[in-house]
Amino acid sequence: MNVVLEGISLYNIGFTLEETCKLLKIKFGLDVSINTLSNWVKEFAPICRYARMREFGLKLFSPNQVIQSVRLYHRQVFDFLYHRAKIALILQDFKHQKYEPLREFLDIIAVECPHQLFKDGPRISEVKQKFDLSEVIIREKK
Fold it and tell me: How is the chain split into domains, by residue range?
């Protein structure tokens, strides 16, 4: 299943069928035929929603630029990834322009992340605090 998922993902971010098969050979040591990969892509197209935007995303980014990836070294190592092509394509629709600040925020994480906030003080999972519902107003709706 890992080979199938990786193959579909690599193809969808913009690698050709041939390039994807070569990358699968390098990563998994398996010879996946172009025909097999093509069948996987077709079979799972209904649940791979980016597939319909792939050709438009390729006009904006090369396959190596589609996914922004940054490793953040806080108390733990976090891999921060986001799909640059998806957000760029979504923002082309005027009604989604309100999300432009989100794209800007995601773009600057790599260079301007406030790392000190995540290195000092307790982690939220370490804070032992009782959650109190006494002041919560619950309104029933029908």
Answer: 1-47, 53-118
Own/partner contacts of 85-90, CB < 8 Å, gap of 24 or more, are 85/13, 85/14, 85/50, 85/53, 85/56, 85/57, 85/58, 85/60, 85/61, 86/50, 86/53, 86/57, 88/57, 88/60, 88/61, 89/53, 89/56, 89/57, 89/60
Global pTM reads: 0.74
Residue 42 has which token pair?
A: 């077709």
Q: How confident is the model at residue 120 (pLDDT cuts 50, 70, 90)?
A: confident
In angstroms, the CA 131 to CA 81 distance is: 32
Tokens, residue 1: 């299943």
Residue 110 confidence (pLDDT): 77
